[in-house]
Design goal:
α3 crosses α4. The chain contains twelve helices and ten strands. Strands 1-2-4-3-5-6-9-10 form an eight-stranded mixed beta sheet, with helices on both faces. The chain is of the alpha/beta class and 376 residues long. The chain has a single domain, classed as 3-Layer(aba) Sandwich (Rossmann fold), CATH 3.40.50. α4 links the parallel β5 and β6.
């Protein structure tokens, strides 16, 4: 799939945000190694990660597309079962939460498949209002919803044949890592939790990436408040009987950049994130955009709030060269409720490189394997 094709698809699907690009890329970094483009159209399950399953074969890891209801919405997910899966047996199981703007076919699927290769049943699902899951308006990104998505995956998978509900783990990647910390605080069905390149969506939406927008917090709250008012007006008496258009629901975080513009972005997170999500691992369900009114919820939330409630074993993994590392290093010491915890840095890796670069993914899995084996 060419760059022009990806860009055309993005424009047709998403449009272009009218708001400042400074709030654009939440949860995505930059690539120092060129990745081979993966075309979702060439995979029967629309998976875009390297080494993805192309067909189910006896005796190997298999993928099972599933759909279930969560608070009245249709949620779509993929369940991965280990080699020689037997529904009459009991398997430890791991829920995998995807990054902000991501979908189940990208990095979440990569880790879910690899964990299934280690003998786990795994599930990853598109967040409500995002990807292939239901919900209107599209691309709502509120912490309460994302946390509920994780509880919902646990609800579904613990009823799945072969799942040992007493051995349920959680893995959160990027923004899904921040939301996984929040979910695990109170959902004790999760016996252990791990994060990879944890991204604190609330802190970044509030303060800007690397706390670079502290002087514009009130202005952005005003924008969010006006956006909510605009949404309400679009649903009012004058709008009844008329479908709301994209123009009536203000969005943030979407943009369409040239390769030259991407190269000039200020952070690795941005540069590599654009390459990953818009070039090498693009998927039509994946987008950076979110309803601007979501900021009312995001900016008053923080992934580290009451993190001391986590008493389960905790493993936090991040790249040593990731410019998002500060979020993991901030959260880790606040998790005072558990003594069984480790912060592990993947030497030389940036944030996005932990999504797909084989040597860094292998290092992450090298830590996840003994962690889950011991705690589940």
């Amino acid at each position: 799939m060419s760059d022009k094709t990806v860009n055309k698809t993005r424009r047709e699907m998403l449009g272009v945000s009218a708001l400042a690009f400074s709030s654009a890329i939440i949860g995505v970094p930059a690539m120092t190694t060129t990745a081979i483009a993966a075309d979702y159209k060439k995979n029967p399950f629309t998976l875009v990660y390297g080494g993805a399953i192309t067909n189910n074969e006896p005796g190997k890891v298999n993928i099972h597309p599933v759909k279930y209801k969560l608070n009245g919405l249709d949620i779509v997910g993929n369940v991965y079962t280990p080699a020689n899966y037997d529904a009459q047996k009991k398997y430890p199981t791991i829920v995998v939460a995807h990054p902000n703007g991501g979908v189940k076919e990208q990095v979440a699927g990569l880790y879910a498949q690899h964990l299934a290769e280690l003998g786990y049943i795994t599930i990853t699902a598109d967040a409500a209002f995002q990807g292939g899951s239901g919900g209107e308006p599209r691309s709502v990104d509120k912490p309460a919803y994302r946390i509920e998505d994780i509880h919902g995956m646990a609800d579904f998978i613990t009823q799945y044949p072969g799942v040992d509900a007493a051995r349920l783990g959680l893995l959160g990647i990027c923004g899904g890592g921040g939301y996984s910390l929040a979910a695990a605080k109170t959902d004790k069905r999760f016996k252990s939790i791990a994060t990879v390149s944890m991204f604190n969506s609330g802190r970044v939406r509030r303060n800007g990436y690397q706390d670079s927008q502290l002087d514009s917090i009130q202005d952005r709250l005003q924008q969010a408040s006006k956006a909510r008012a605009q949404e309400v007006a679009g649903k009012g008496p004058a709008a009844r009987g008329h479908e709301m258009t994209g123009g009536q629901v203000p969005y943030s975080g979407d943009a369409d950049l040239t390769d030259e513009q991407i190269a000039k972005l200020p952070f690795d997170l941005y540069r590599q994130g654009y390459e990953y999500y818009w070039r090498t691992h693009a998927h039509p369900g994946s987008t950076f955009k979110y309803t601007t009114s979501s900021l009312l919820d995001l900016m008053r939330w923080d992934a580290t709030d009451q993190i001391d409630l986590i008493d389960q074993p905790l493993l936090m993994i991040a790249g040593s060269k990731a410019d998002s590392l500060y979020m993991t290093e901030d959260a880790f010491p606040k998790a005072t409720g558990t003594k069984d915890k480790e912060l592990f840095k993947i030497e030389g890796a940036t944030h996005i490189e932990t999504y797909w670069v084989p040597k860094y993914v292998d290092v992450a899995l090298g830590k996840l394997k003994p962690f889950y084996a011991r705690t589940l």
